[in-house]
Amino acid sequence: MVLFRFIQGKDIFEAFYKKDLAKRLLMSKSASIDSEKSMLGKLKRECGSQFTFKLEGMFKDMAVSKDLMLSYKERESEGVDLSVTVLTTGYWPSYPTDSVIIPAQISAVLDKYRTYYLNKHSGRKLTWQHSLSFCTIKATFGDDSSTERKLDLRKELNVSVYQGLVLFLFNNSTKLSYSSIAESTAIEEEELCRVLQSLACGKTRVLKKLPAGKDINSTDNFEFNTDFRHKLFKFKINQIQTKETAEENINTTEKVFQDRQYQIDAAVVRIMKARKTMQHSLLVSELYNQLKFPVKPVDIKKRIESLIERDYVERSKEDKNVYHYVA
Known about the structure:
Distance between the termini: 43 Å
Shape: elongated
Largest sheet: 3 strands, mixed
Strand order of the largest sheet: 1-2-6
Strand content: 5-15%
């Protein structure tokens, strides 16, 4: 926390911290929830409740979702072991929506939960974020009819929903082309290539790529790998991770700067409403005292000009360095 006190752009820190915290919570990768909450408490004492409001909301969503699932499972008996985490849009980072094709059996289960949730919370809207979801698939490898042999070939695969959608197609076919997989799943092209690489080109090759190679092409074909073997009964097939690009970092930073504009606007209006009339230099000085992030004079000037255009503030006709609040 000593180093944290020296950070000037604490709102930028909050944006990246929220993004990483969301990954840890949703992927169950946090080393300790108690440690996460302890860190949250330190941030709250240092910066106030407004700074940690959204972060606390994320933990609240996790707790409420857990209770909601317990209530749902007491009432409903499903062949699929479903676990849903409901995220409040304002608390969590924004995620791109997808429109992948979910198998009818799974879609029916999701629709049932949606009906249950909306009956319990009328007026709300649920949007499935399949890109954040995981599933466990039971698979049997090999073609030996021996019962004893088959027991050794039964496995449970922990995969992403995208990986699961691709594997699900091989229930009805032993060989599929890239185009048929793309058409049947509607997974975005770049994401589909990563999914197929993880299944057919990684360390855990449950699919065979024809022709063999590390790169995925639209002319490739894929077969279910009946020769696949693994020493563990249950294992995870890792996804091909995409490194956070400079562009993604810039987008996160730009969102923070956009939020700063709103905060500057609100501070100017608040000050002018209280003072009615004020000189430019005094207004800038007051803004420096109220704003909790570094801001350049040129940025303040731009926001004042924007407020003048929107008739929140007007310049004095006698002195251009004096502003009047427009009621």
